[in-house]
Design goal:
The protein is mainly α and 275 residues long. The chain is built from 13 helices and no strands.
Length: 275
C-alpha cells in the first residue's frame, strides 16, 4: 500500500513537472531572445548578451505611445467597471428579491458570451453614434464587456461581509451609500483588488476590441501594436519582439505588485463583530 502511494505521488509529480516545463520554456525563450541579437525560435542562451533589442523598440511609435494608450484605455475601463460592478453587486448581496436569481443567471450567461458574437452589431451601433475611433467609446464598451464577470465576483466577496456591521451603521444614522463606502468597501478591499487585477489583465491582453473600434495608429494600444509589428516587417525580428513582449508585460506585473499585499489578507471581521 505504501509503495503504491509513493508511485502515485511520483507519477503526479512527474506530470506536474512536465506541465511546468511546458510553461517555463516559452518564458525562457522570451528572456534569452530579448538579449540575443541573432535570436530565432530556438531556446538558447545568447553567447554575447546585448541590450540592442530594447534600444531598438524603445521609441515613441513602437512602445511609448501604444503603452500609454493601453494604460488610458484599460485603466479607465477597469475603474469604470469596478464602480458599476460594486453598485450593481450591493443590492444583489444585501436585498432579497425574486428577481435576484434570474438577474444573476443572466449575468452568468453573459460571462460566457464570446465577444466576437456581438462585435458586428456593436460596430454598426458605434458607426451610427460616431463612436468609432474614439477612446471614450472603446473604454465604455470594454467596461461593459467586463461587467458581468466583475459583478459576479464582487457579489461573492460582498456576501462575506456580515450585514450586522451595516445594521449597526444604520442605527447610527448612516444611509446605504454611506454604509457601502465606510463599512463594506474597506472590508472587501482584498476582493476588490482581485477583481481589479483580473479585469485589467483581461483588458490589457484584449486585441480584438481595440483592433475593430480604433482606426488611427496614434490611438492603438500595445496589444494591437504588437500585431502591426508582425505585419510591417514581414518576418519579425525575434529579439526585438521578445524585448517588446517583456516591456508589454511590465504594467501588469507592476499592478500585481502594488496590490499583492491586499490579496493575501482575509476579511478581518472578528474584532469588528466583537466590537
Amino acid at each position: 500500500m505504501i509503495a503504491r502511494d509513493r508511485i502515485s505521488k511520483l507519477s503526479a509529480n512527474l506530470v506536474l513537472l512536465g506541465i511546468g516545463v511546458l510553461f517555463v520554456l516559452p518564458l525562457l525563450w522570451v528572456l534569452f531572445a530579448s538579449i540575443n541579437r541573432t535570436a530565432g525560435l530556438r531556446v538558447e542562451l545568447p553567447s554575447n548578451p546585448t541590450l540592442e533589442n530594447f534600444r531598438a523598440v524603445l521609441n515613441t511609435d513602437t512602445t511609448y505611445r501604444p503603452v500609454l494608450n493601453g494604460l488610458v484605455l484599460c485603466g479607465g475601463a477597469a475603474l469604470l467597471t469596478m464602480v458599476c460592478a460594486v453598485l450593481a453587486a450591493y443590492p444583489l448581496s444585501r436585498f432579497k428579491s425574486k428577481f435576484n436569481r434570474p438577474f444573476l443567471l443572466t449575468v452568468l450567461f453573459c460571462t460566457g458570451l464570446p465577444i466576437t458574437a456581438v462585435m458586428v452589431p456593436v460596430y454598426g451601433l458605434f458607426v451610427q453614434l460616431n463612436l468609432v475611433d474614439t477612446l471614450g467609446g472603446t473604454i465604455m464598451f470594454m467596461a461593459t464587456a467586463s461587467l458581468p464577470f466583475a459583478i459576479w465576483l464582487c457579489k461573492t466577496f460582498m456576501d462575506g461581509v456580515p450585514i450586522s456591521l451595516e445594521e449597526a451603521a444604520w442605527v447610527d444614522g448612516a444611509g446605504n451609500m454611506q454604509a457601502l463606502r465606510r463599512i463594506v468597501l474597506p472590508l472587501m478591499w482584498p476582493g476588490i483588488a482581485v477583481v481589479l487585477i483580473f479585469t485589467f489583465i483581461g483588458m490589457w491582453g484584449n486585441f480584438f476590441v481595440p483592433f475593430m473600434l480604433l482606426l488611427s495608429p496614434e490611438r492603438l494600444p500595445a496589444s494591437v501594436s504588437i500585431f502591426t509589428f508582425f505585419g510591417q516587417y514581414g518576418e519579425p525580428n525575434y529579439g526585438q519582439l521578445a524585448a517588446y513582449s517583456l516591456i508589454y508585460t511590465t504594467p501588469v506585473l507592476v499592478l500585481y505588485l502594488l496590490l499583492s499585499r491586499k490579496l493575501g489578507g482575509a476579511f478581518a471581521l472578528g474584532g469588528a463583530i466583537k466590537g
